[in-house]
Amino acid sequence: MYAIIKNGGKQYKVQEGDVLLLDKMSLEPKDIIEITEVLAVNAGELKYGAPFVDGAKVTAEVINEGRARKIVIFKKRRRKDSKVKRGFRRDFTRVRITKIAA
């Protein structure tokens, strides 16, 4: 059984027991969250919504929060003496999927 959920403008395909990184939600470890924005559920047969499946929800447990490794963005325009160096670190919430209810 798997589900396709939406969080933070991104879509994730999840199964029970999966660990994934979602956008930061400012929660404590061991908190339980329910994601109701379920786009599709496959429990033997595929059910999809327009845009969300009615009555479907995914339950997840927060493991921790943190910041990802730095990504360096470097732009250079040749022969123009123009260059820009920027960095970016994504804040995330790591969750474990505990239950998919169709």
Task: Explain how this protein is built.
- There is one protein chain.
- The protein is built from no helices and 10 strands.
- The mean pLDDT is 95.
- It is elongated and about 60 Å long.
- It has one domain.
- The strands form 3 sheets. Strands 2-1-5-6 form a 4-stranded antiparallel β-sheet, with no helix packed on it.
- Helix content is 0%, strand content 64%.
- A hairpin with a 4-residue loop joins strand 8 and strand 9.
- The protein starts with a strand and ends with a strand.
- With 102 residues, it is mostly beta strands.
How are the SSEs ordered, and which strands pair?
Elements: E1 2-7, E2 10-15, E3 19-23, E4 32-35, E5 38-42, E6 46-48, E7 57-67, E8 71-77, E9 82-88, E10 91-101
Strand percentage lies at over 45%
> What is the CA-based Rg, rounded?
18 Å
Q: Main β-sheet: number of strands, strand sense, barrel status?
A: 4 strands, antiparallel
Strand numbers in spatial order across the main sheet = 2-1-5-6
Number of helices: 0
Can you tell me the number of structural domains? 1
Helix content: under 10%
- Termini separation (Å)? 10 Å
Shape: elongated
Question: What features would you highlight for this structure?
Answer:
4-stranded antiparallel beta sheet, 102 residues, mainly beta
Brief write-up:
The chain has 102 residues and is mainly beta. It is 0% helix and 64% strand.
